[in-house]
Amino acid sequence: MIYSLALVVLLAATAHVPAWAQDLQEIPFTPSVPSALQQLPLSAEARASLGRAIETRDYESAEKLLAAEIERNPKSQELLRFLASVFFLDGKYLNTAVALKKAEDLGPLDDPSRFTLALSYIILDHRDWARPELLKLQTSDPRNALYPYWLGRLDYDNMQFTSAVANLRKAKELDPFFMKVYDNLGLCYEALGRFDEAIQTYQEAAALNRETKAPSPWPPLNLGALLVKMGKLEEAETILKESLSFDPNSPQALYQKGLLLEKQKKDDDAIQMLRRAASLDPAYAEPHYVLGRIYNRKGETKNAQTAWNTFHRLKREHPRQRPH
Fold it and tell me: If you write DSSP's letter for every residue of 140-152 in order, what string do you get?
């Protein structure tokens, strides 16, 4: 599969990218930067300058160069699409969408550009705008598992869990090795209270995850979190250890480990784990709630109230934040 420049170089640009975009690291792609550059209506000198700017991540210079070229050649859809990709790399998702809509005014978008447009809408929290684009892509390429996968993600966010299951099952049929499909399908089963199916699906996700070059902490974390919820603490301890081996600084995995330790009555260890989770993600509210519960049980009412006040403040400040 070949995707636009934004997805080709995304791995090098995740430091300033929000959680939705970071998840794109697990999308397969084939590098196409050289061919994309060669297709642009540019002089050899301008093409070389643009290539250097992209290679060194000097996106502002690349954007200025492309804007100047578009001034001279406003009917070039290729230049607008490439500029949109650079905007995406630069974290300017609204600019990405505007450039791609201007490109669409000049003619139909190719699938990679429409996919980048859909992802930009998702990151901008306009999932209602993203859905029609993903549906168009699904019609254009019905064998591509990415599109039902992302439709399932949108359904899950909208708490349309039955619809999400249908889309994710379709993605699973199209690509039985797409690990994120299993992971998100497990989340849907869990939300529907179908815990046995959720556990089995998480286990399948975890098995596929172990075979990847850079395993994600999320599949074992989601499985471990459900096992903690169900009181299966010994099983949860093993799988959470695996999650932390993939990312020792995962705030969510540290939180779940702290929650597990609390349930095991290991309060001092739990406090240490929960404090670390909170320090690694200052916007993460849940560790503070459990800390308050532990402090209250220990008779440290002042510390408990401080933790709970922090929990409520963070919930007000970040109402849409979710653990996954």
Answer: H-TT-THHHHHHH
* Residue numbers of the domain that contains 277: 268-324
- Helix or strand holding residue 277 (H, E): helix 267-280
CA 133/CA 73 separation, integer angstroms: 27
pLDDT digit string, tens, across residues 175-190: 999 999 999 999 999 9
Helix ranges (H only) for 124-232 are 127-140, 146-157, 161-174, 179-191, 195-210, 218-229
Same domain, 151 and 119: no
Q: In the structure, what pLDDT confidence band is assigned to residue 321 with cuts at 50, 70 and 90?
A: low
Tokens of 39: 């297709």
Report the pLDDT averaged over residues 157-174. 97
Residue 166 lies in a domain: yes
Does 293 reside within a domain?
A: yes
Token representation of residue 255: 């939180």
pLDDT at 21 over 80: no
Which residues pair with residue 30 across a beta bridge?
A: 2
